[in-house]
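Can anyone check this?
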Amino acid sequence: MTNQFPSQLLENAVQALSGLPGVGRKTALRLALFLLRQDEAHVHSFAEAIVNFKDQVKFCRHCHNLSDSDECDICSNPLRDASTICVVENVQDVMAVEQTRQYRGLYHVLGGIISPIDGIGPKDLEIDSLVERVRAGGVSEVIFALSTTMEGDTTSFYISRRLEGLPVKLTAIARGVSVGDELEYADELTLGRSIVNRVAFNINPH
């Protein structure tokens, strides 16, 4: 097929940018031409920031949140309540909960939720490390703050079974977040109230 662009270098740039989520070829073309018009130092700085992020960013050894060091700022903060762990799906959810300013405990980032249709099982997630954190002691409450979808509920139920017998209270965010909603898209007020008004997690819903 004949290249529709006058430059193979432009084609390569568009192809790379269109690989980003939510970016089609038209948007990718606009972004590529925008970058072309920018100062060379600015573009190099932009590219360097992306490469450095990919090469140097770490995952916290405790909660698996993104961090510049082996321990994230939240886990290393002595003012946080280490007896409470909020279980979330991804890093975006940590940021969403933090923006509410209604929670002062720690987090545990699973890295996804159980979804057989997508080939994601419990072993693909940071569930074992969560169980170990609770088993090590000092944790009195685990809050399930996963998306209110079938997959999110399945994941919460599975983890609750794994934590059975351990001296920890299991709670879930109140359903102020609508069923089927993704946590990161909930507004701050609703999410904040859902955390403050969390309820006991029912391990036997039926």
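Reply from J.R.: I decoded it. Strands lie at 58-59, 66-67, 81-88, 105-109, 141-144, 169-172, 199-200.
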